[in-house]
Design goal:
This protein has 124 residues and is an all-alpha fold. It is built from 5 helices and no strands. It has one domain (34-120).
Length: 124
């Protein structure tokens, strides 16, 4: 699924249908992509966004650290904690982050997806 984080305003389905579809995709292997594991990535992303705010210079200073989430996802995948689908989704979204605005779009999409994932996994 190709998401578009760069349009402004964001696509109308980014925080609803798109987030729900990603959550369903990430639940195909219920033994992986546990909400607590995925939340660690979200929490780190939020931390970077809080440091950056709307400051373009800070964004440029911290962009490499945001991209390091890809390496952390690869490590988690190697430990069989997350799936290839999670790593691919994260990589595709991070590749689109080019400003504080797109970082915020991704954070909100990630937050919505976490809510759907928690709901889907509620009985597990």
């Amino acid at each position: 699924m190709k998401l578009d984080l760069k349009t402004s305003p964001p696509p109308i389905t980014l925080f609803s249908d798109d987030a729900e579809n990603i959550a369903k995709l990430l639940n195909l292997d219920p033994s992986k992509n546990k909400p607590t594991q995925i939340r660690r990535f979200y929490d780190e992303l939020v931390g970077w966004q809080e440091r950056i705010g709307n400051d373009d210079k800070k964004f440029k200073d911290y962009a490499a650290f945001i991209h390091m989430l890809n390496a952390k996802a690869a490590y988690a995948q190697g430990r069989k904690l997350v799936t290839q689908e999670f790593a691919d989704w994260l990589r595709g979204c991070i590749a689109q982050i080019d400003s504080p605005r797109t970082l915020n779009h991704f954070r909100l999409h990630f937050e919505a997806m976490l809510g759907f994932l928690k709901f889907i996994k509620k009985d597990e």
